[in-house]
Specification:
This protein has 289 residues and is mainly α. 55% of the residues lie in helices and 7% in strands. The protein has helices spanning 27-39, 51-58, 62-75, 101-112, 116-126, 136-147, 154-164, 169-172, 191-194, 197-207, 213-220, 226-239, 244-256, 262-285, and strands at 46-47, 78-85, 89-97. A 3-stranded antiparallel beta sheet has the order 1-3-2, covered by helices on one side. Strand 2 (78-85) and strand 3 form a beta hairpin.
Length: 289
């Protein structure tokens, strides 16, 4: 019996295979990368989806999404820039999914030319711990060094070139704050320590109702100290029209800016004030004020 089979339209997006082999990234990092790839322009790799849209596509909370974006930027899989306009101020970030075809090209050329030493060196580099994905310059340097010949130890050569190209994560992130003491009241705390009597009373004062269970659940995802949560609640009461959504936006911005304590918040506020002063001067030049 002949049956007419209806062909469905399937839609595809570019997803670079290398990321699937990176064991330093977890499932949320990879689903975030997939969500960005789905939105990215096929020619430029650029996109500008909102955090809400990305979180929905990646299947995670906004705090977890922001952490994954930071991981992807640090590893070199994506680039991120903040955007703003004269009317709305800050708007969605613009992201670029980095084209890593130069790595696959180098691996394919090594295989086609039976250059086992180069192929092994490239794989050693891709498996190098505590390092961002190799950029074009590092791959080119490695290819040139291997093609010179010689029997030098491959792991030593890979490590040396990696250090010279400054792709080590400690080189890329010199102000790493992994020294945070969880006993410090300004640092991050466990969920049980967040909702102190002071936090609960302050929340009720600003929002005119006791903190609800779903609100506790949302706030606990951030795992900030009581001091930081209280600071954000006060700021919501002063500037945000006393909405819970605005409170979450503040906490999202704290994660994006790697806030670890109250002093970090004060520095962030100072930077924003300086930027606002510059923006005001620009508006005055344009005759808007």
């Amino acid at each position: 019996m002949n049956e007419k089979i209806e062909m469905k339209s399937w839609y595809f997006f570019r997803f670079q295979e290398l990321i699937m082999h990176d064991t330093s990234l977890d499932a949320f990092d990879k689903s975030t990368y997939a969500a960005l790839s789905m939105h990215a322009d096929t020619n430029t790799g650029m996109c500008f989806p909102s955090l809400k849209t990305l979180a929905e596509k990646a299947g995670c909370s906004k705090p977890r999404l922001i952490k994954s974006i930071k991981n992807l930027v640090k590893k070199g899989y994506i680039e991120k820039k903040k955007r703003k306009n004269d009317i709305k101020g800050n708007i969605s970030n613009v992201y670029k999914v980095v084209d890593l075809s130069y790595i696959n090209n180098a691996l394919n050329n090594a295989k086609e030319n039976n250059n086992e030493r180069l192929e092994k060196a490239l794989k050693l580099r891709l498996n190098l711990e505590n390092s961002a994905i190799p950029d074009y310059n590092e791959v080119l340097t490695l290819v040139n060094e291997i093609n010179k010949g010689g029997k030098r130890d491959l792991q030593g050569l890979v490590n040396e070139i990696n250090k010279a190209c400054k792709r080590d994560l400690h080189e890329l992130e010199p102000n790493n704050k992994n020294h945070i003491n969880n006993d410090d009241d300004d640092g991050r705390k466990s969920q049980k320590e967040i909702f102190t009597k002071k936090t609960n009373n302050l929340f009720k004062e600003v929002f005119n109702h006791p903190i609800k269970e779903y609100e506790k659940e949302e706030l606990s995802k951030y795992k900030f100290s009581p001091g930081i949560i209280q600071y954000a609640i006060k700021k919501t009461g002063k500037f945000g029209g006393k909405t819970f959504a605005y409170l979450l936006e503040i906490l999202d911005s704290y994660i994006e800016n790697d806030i670890q304590n109250i002093e970090d918040i004060k520095k962030l506020n100072k930077r924003k004030r300086n930027n606002n002063n510059l923006d005001q001067k620009e508006l005055e030049k344009k005759g808007w004020n």
